[in-house]
Amino acid sequence: MNYLELKVEQLKKDGVYRMLPVNETPCEAIITLNGKKVINLSSNNYLGLASHPKVKQKAIEAINYYGVGAGAVRTIVGNMAIHEELDDVIARFKREEAVLVFQSGYMCNIGVIQAVTEKGDLIISDELNHASIIDGVRLSRADKAVYKHSDMEDLERILLEKRSQYNQVLIITDGVFSMDGDIAKLPDIVKLAKKYNALTYVDDAHGSGVLGESGRGTVDHFSLHGQVDFIIGTLSKAVGVVGGYVAGSKAMKEYLLHRARPLLFSTSMMPGACAAIIESIKLLESSNEYTTKLWENSNHLKNALVKQGFDIGHSETPITPVIIGDEAKTMAFSKALLDNGVYVSGIIFPTVPKGLGRIRMMPSALHDKNTLDEAVKIIKVVWDQISNHE
Ligand SMILES: *Cc1c(COP(=O)(O)O)cnc(C)c1O
After folding, report:
1. How many Å lie between the centroid of ligand 1 and the Cα of residue 42?
2. How many CB atoms lie within 10 A of CB 150?
3. For the chain, which terminal residue's Cβ has fewer other Cβ atoms within 10 angstroms, N or C?
């Protein structure tokens, strides 16, 4: 057997082998997953923009005009007028000086962190930061330190101990932490950064389109415009399309245009995606109906779960975990829910600490209250069955 076949065999023995679920329908509140109609509480399509008629129409128009591919990287001939427009539309929406779009949030993190740090610098990262930040940090030649999750004393301890030994220090945090739904203590981080002359970097993938005025993000939520050096967002979640961006100063953008490797060595976003994103952002700018509906649905879901006695952790955002604890029980629960028509992902170690397994629900603006009530009813019935079988 070749070595990868052996490794796959081992995955099966370890009980972690899995098949990808197949969705045959648009990413909406009800989907057909593996041939079965289920309530979808697992997507990051927070605002329902992924299949919004106006957003789809703009993508179609752009494809008809530009074609499907940009044909090159942005530094050669792949920088179409629509890419320039996209950067500017997002900068205006984010109320920051400049924006540079990447092909995904992942690409943005691995490109920006590496470009803006070098040997002699220190990166200080929250222990629960997203995998794409961890990968970006790995690619950097700077030294690394990790602080305990949202623990400002621990962050200050590292700054106090190490600041003087380095040229630049970059503090990196998620804006909203995706497993618990808690918000970074950004005002405190900014204060510490000022005190110790450090730079700040917030990855707001789960905050963009969710927090702040009409979804302008965590920085807007805390009124910290102009005070965070690098603001990363994704266009793949609430904005409903695909892509990532960094917002910050004009000089930051100019530098990254010369040094961010995903920009230099990977073809730019498809023009249809650019047009779809521009329309999504315009919808957010013109109305807060999408974010209002998202928050109403989230509060409705959370209240219904608490009423049934579930432990929903300490989320401050639509991300809604139900803490189960035991790993095997968590996965059995998630599987039984799918069999009964509710798709929520089970999340266990190593994604979250041992003994803190949970199912994670992602309500959206597309759900209606009846569907959410129906989901909670099924969750309660299935949970009672599982607990009674112990
Ligand atoms: C989802 C996510 C990303 C990746 O974004 P993509 O656009 O899907 O590549 C990056 N950072 C965080 C914190 C995320 O949650």
Report:
1. 15
2. 20
3. C
